[in-house]
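Quick start: load a record and inspect it. Here is Peptidoglycan hydrolase CwlO-like protein:
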Amino acid sequence: MQSVPPFRLARTPSGESTSAAGAYGAAYSATPAGAADACCTPTEAQLRSPHRRARLSDLDSHLHCSVIGTCLSTNELRKLVPKFTDLDRQHATDLEIHHAAVELAIEGGAAAKALQKALDARYSGAVRRFEVAKDPEALLALWKDALKSGDIPPAYWAVMTHPHAIMSVRQAAFGDLHMLSHLVGVANRADIHRLVALEEENAALKDKIERQQEKLHELTTERDASLRQLSTQVAELSAKAERRPDTSEVNLEAEIEALREALAARDERLAIHTSRRETAEQRALDEQRHAQTLSQRLDNTIATLNVVQAECNALEQALVAQGGEAGSKAEDLTSLSGKRVVYVGGRPGSNAALRQLVESAGGDFVVHDGGIEDRKGMFAAALPRADIVVFPVDCIDHDSMNLLKRVCDRHQVDYHPLRTASVASFVELMTRLSRASQQSGKSGNTPPASRFCLRHG
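Running the structure step on this input writes:
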């Protein structure tokens, strides 16, 4: 069984109409009656007005994550999202702010209108630039040009809300943006090397600037002394000229002109050194800002690396403990003995390995794919006698994750998100829960396991 992404692109017939009404009809012609979601079905007003720009609430709920994450920065969301939610602007994480913004966009209402207003105000120029497209082919050509130039966020918002953005155009834009996200981590290693080189170059530039400033200070002191000396000489010559009217005026004028030329040459030399110093200072400031940006990216990369190392260590300990003796169990997974684990989302390959790992520890492992093939309404049926619910945030859509959280809160079932759908993330979570359970067991505050009935709650 192949793994299916959380967002499945709809397939359109080859004879797709260029009009908005024809595109929506073709996209849903292959869907059985009653199987399409209400949020994805176009309204009659949309079908009657194909030349109206789409609103944020009109878009498919699977597109809100990419639109919010690509077209709005975290700082803008931190100013806007807390107005409609209970999140703390200062202490909420970037992921919490992003999830809250996506939920507000899906729910519609005043929050969705505020997000729509912010996007239209920021990318009004791109929207006007894309208005020249009068058919899907021209709109797709404009998107490809923007993709080549790297101007992604304005073009993405203009394409997604364009009147002629049929299903295939939005699929193409979403697919291009999705593949770009895979290229983000490739530059991390080169950035780290550049950061080290820039730090060395920055230190060298600082030393050079200090030497130049000292030299300029010496030149300025020398210039001032020369000016005072020349002024004294000019005053003496003027006094001599007044006392000696028979002195040759030609010689005096020649001497004064030579002094003026010497003074002009010194001023020109000082101007050159001043310009070089200002250029070097500006370059040093630019390098410092760039180095700070790379340092922040390096800190984020190191934090992610620490999480991955913790997962790898937990997985290695579990595998060593499991392979040390025939039939033995990992010490950190013994807490799963006799427990029922419900795993929502994930990938088929890793899910099979997780099932074997949990069952070898004496636990029961139940898998729900998050609504790709299994119905989302079966969440409640998968939770009876569940001791813990686990879901990877990278292999489950927002709608399924929110529905799962509500069901778990309603029935008081403990749930935990995973960073990825890998076996290492699952083992690291089980290790932390096992240690926390041991500590709470020593203190005598172990909470009772959740049990509920499907009929009576």
